Every structure is written in structure tokens, then in C-alpha cells.
């Protein structure tokens, strides 16, 4: 393993990740680790690469605009893991890795002779990060499990959308991203354990369980009260006021559901006495009269400009804001002050704007050190430097279709 004294490029800059995953659930975990400084070596099938290279919005004939985000801070090498020779190469790389990240269907790694027991016999400190639809065990483990299915099974899809429509999606691949985020959390927890014991382990992140973990008191409410959450559009039942309200030219989100904050909202509306009325006196009372309270607030905001509503909310300390789209983010001073969006140099696009690394660390901040790689861009570097293969051997493996 590499030893580094200073962490000049992120807190994880002394760690190496071998990323085998494709599409999003695995690679987003790799992105998170790479953003915090880890050396992420993305291993892709020769010639075709990760399908994410062509997914997402793009102009005709140009590369994907999603790939530069999820593949930033990574190196790309090609390797055919279906070939015994490719499996042997991976085993040699395992000895030099801290993490192995994969999101194949459970059983695939075992079929290739790359199960954890085998890999741990080569490198007992290895932490294997496994992301899948249903986890590595249980009656559904063998099933194909995309993020959409995990979102549905985990309970999210049922509660998203308007009650007048069928269950909806959030608008992003939230199931995949949640599973990847929990996988990253598990990986760093396993890393801490390894620091104490010297032993690696398996991190098993299932998409449906990651979604379920975010579902607040959904299960408990049903277990003890027989309550099933339904789709409620822009509100949460019995949490009021917290909604999107019309203005003269648009919409403003106002969240004043805490007692003291609601009092400040009433003062901003010029009706301080509302906060003392029995039907609005506390959280439970406002929840029971949610619809009429929202209608009262909407009638007030509709006569004001968006700018005026926001000015009043800020003056009275009431949480409020606009519903942003990309143009709003790019011109907002808060985004600019914290460098939440950055420009990254890219060989195909010149400059690309994208979200920055989160969260921010004061002593060892992460960052975007490199754009998304071309397929196999780092073959010579990794196979030559890391494995010390001679150029002739690298050329031989390439001719055999192994790399």
C-alpha cells in the first residue's frame, strides 16, 4: 500500500479503489470516494466500456453529458473479466488495492472466481463494496434489480407525486444514488475497523434497503397506528404551513411549521393574532386545519411580488425560497460564494459546469482533479507502473483482447 504523509488532494488520497461497476449505483460510490481524494481505477470491458459513456442528455454526435460527472477523478483501464487471463490480472491488482467496488448481479463475481474469500486470501485488508438491487442474500438476491425497482420496493415511489396521479418518480436516479451513498458510508466504516484490526470485510448495500432507510417513520406508523402514507403533492400531511404558494409572477416555498416560526410568519402577514387562534395555536392544531391555513397564506402571497414575499420572509426569519432550475443556480450568489458549481476543463467540451464536491472539509477538502477519462486512457500507466508489466506484455494482452 502507498504511504502518504500529507493529504494535499483530499482526505482519502492514500487509498486506492478498483471500480468494476457500471451505470450508476456502483460508479456514484466511486465518484464520492474519488471526490475525497482516493485514486479510483475504473476497470471497463475492452472496446465497449461503461454504458454511462453514452447515457444521458447529449447533443447529436457528441459524448454523454452525464459521463463527465460520474467519471470525474477516475482513471480508466480496460480488462475483460470474463476471460481467465483477465481474472488473473485483477487478482494481481487486488494486492495493491484498498477497496474493490462492484455492482454486478449477485453471483457474478463468484462465477468468475473472484469471490471475497479468494480475493481476501490475496489481500486480507481488502474491503469489497458490493451494490445490488436486493443485496447479496435472500430469496430475491439473484434477480436483476435496477434503481427504479428498488425505489418502488423501498416505499418511495408510492408516496411521490400528486394524489390524483399514479405513483411517480423523483426525477433523478435517487435509488441508485442512495445505495451508492450508503455503500460509501459502509466502506469508510469498514476502513475505520480495518485501522483497528487490520482486517477487511464486505460492504453489502442493497438499493431497496437504502431507499427504505430514508423513509422516516413509514413502517413504524403503520405498525402502531395502521397509518399508510399516501401521495400528497407539495405538502406533508399534518405539517403546516409548509407548501408552495403563488405570487404575482411565480411561486415561493415557505416552511413555517414550527410554532415560533409560524408566529413570525403571522407578523410578516400583518396578522399576528392568527398565531393565537385555537385552530393555529400549535403543530397539531395547524395540521388539523392545514388546507384552510394554506388557502389563507396563498391568498396573501398572490397579491405580492415574489421579491416582496422573499424580502418579508427574510426580514422576519421565516425559511423561504425559490424552486430553482439550473439557470437560477448559476446566477445565485450563495452558489457562487461557496463554489457549489465549478467549471472543469474537458477535452471534448472545453469547459463543463458541474456540481462541486460535497461536503466541504476544512483541513482536507476534496476536489475535481481530473476530467472523465477516455476508455483505456490509463492502461499504460496502471499496467506499467502499478503492475510493472513490460510494454511488450501489455501489447500482448491487448492483442489477446484481455485489455
Under the CATH scheme, the architecture of the largest domain is: 3-Layer(aba) Sandwich
Rough shape? elongated
Tally the helices.
18
- CATH fold category name of the largest domain: Rossmann fold
User: What is the CA-CA span between the terminal residues?
Assistant: 24 Å
Structural class: alpha/beta
Count of strand segments: 11
Q: Whole-number radius of gyration?
A: 25 Å
Fourth-level CATH superfamily of the largest domain = Crotonobetainyl-coa:carnitine coa-transferase, domain 1
Strand order of the largest sheet: 3-2-1-4-5-6
Mean pLDDT: 94
Q: List low-confidence stretches.
A: 1-7
Please describe what this structure looks like.
- The chain is of the alpha/beta class and 403 residues long.
- Helix content is 38%, strand content 13%.
- It has 18 helices and eleven strands.
- Helix 1 packs across helix 8 and helix 8 (174-197) packs across helix 9.
- The radius of gyration is 25 Å and the shape is elongated.
Amino acid at each position: 500500500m502507498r504511504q502518504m504523509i500529507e493529504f494535499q488532494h483530499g482526505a482519502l488520497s492514500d487509498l486506492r479503489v478498483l471500480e468494476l461497476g457500471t451505470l450508476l449505483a456502483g460508479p456514484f460510490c466511486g465518484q464520492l470516494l474519488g471526490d475525497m481524494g482516493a485514486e479510483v481505477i475504473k476497470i471497463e470491458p475492452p472496446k465497449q466500456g461503461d454504458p454511462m459513456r453514452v447515457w444521458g442528455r447529449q447533443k447529436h454526435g457528441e459524448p454523454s453529458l452525464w459521463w463527465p460527472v460520474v467519471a470525474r477523478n477516475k482513471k480508466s483501464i480496460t480488462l475483460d473479466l470474463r476471460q481467465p487471463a483477465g481474472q488473473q490480472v485483477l487478482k494481481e491488482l487486488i494486492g495493491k488495492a484498498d477497496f474493490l467496488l462492484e455492482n454486478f448481479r449477485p453471483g457474478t463475481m463468484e462465477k468468475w472466481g473472484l469471490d471475497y474469500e479468494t480475493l481476501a486470501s490475496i489481500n486480507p485488508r481488502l474491503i469489497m463494496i458490493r451494490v445490488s438491487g436486493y443485496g447479496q442474500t435472500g430469496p430475491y438476491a439473484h434477480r436483476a434489480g435496477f434503481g427504479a425497482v428498488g425505489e418502488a420496493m423501498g416505499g418511495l415511489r408510492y408516496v411521490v407525486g400528486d394524489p390524483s396521479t399514479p405513483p411517480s418518480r423523483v426525477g433523478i436516479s435517487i435509488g441508485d444514488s442512495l445505495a451508492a451513498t450508503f455503500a460509501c458510508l459502509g466502506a469508510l466504516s469498514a476502513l475505520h475497523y480495518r485501522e483497528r484490526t487490520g482486517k477487511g470485510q464486505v460492504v453489502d448495500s442493497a438499493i431497496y434497503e437504502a431507499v427504505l432507510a430514508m423513509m422516516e417513520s413509514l413502517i413504524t406508523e403503520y405498525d402502531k397506528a395502521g397509518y399508510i402514507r399516501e401521495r400528497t403533492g407539495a405538502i406533508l400531511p399534518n405539517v403546516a404551513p409548509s407548501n408552495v404558494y403563488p405570487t404575482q409572477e411565480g411561486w415561493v416555498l415557505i416552511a413555517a411549521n414550527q410554532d415560533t416560526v409560524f408566529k413570525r410568519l403571522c407578523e410578516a402577514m400583518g396578522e399576528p393574532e392568527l398565531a393565537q387562534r385555537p385552530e393555529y395555536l400549535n403543530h397539531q392544531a395547524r395540521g388539523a386545519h392545514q388546507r384552510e391555513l394554506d388557502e389563507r397564506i396563498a391568498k396573501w402571497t398572490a397579491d405580492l411580488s415574489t421579491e416582496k414575499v422573499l424580502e418579508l420572509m427574510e426580514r422576519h426569519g421565516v425559511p423561504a425560497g425559490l424552486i430553482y432550475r439550473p439557470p437560477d443556480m448559476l446566477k445565485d450568489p450563495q452558489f457562487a460564494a461557496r463554489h457549489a458549481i465549478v467549471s472543469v476543463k474537458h477535452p471534448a467540451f472545453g469547459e463543463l459546469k458541474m456540481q462541486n464536491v460535497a461536503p466541504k472539509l476544512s483541513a482536507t477538502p476534496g476536489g475535481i482533479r481530473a476530467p472523465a477519462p477516455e476508455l483505456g486512457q490509463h492502461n499504460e500507466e496502471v499496467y506499467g507502473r502499478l503492475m510493472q508489466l513490460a510494454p511488450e506484455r501489455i501489447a500482448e494482452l491487448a492483442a489477446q483482447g484481455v485489455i
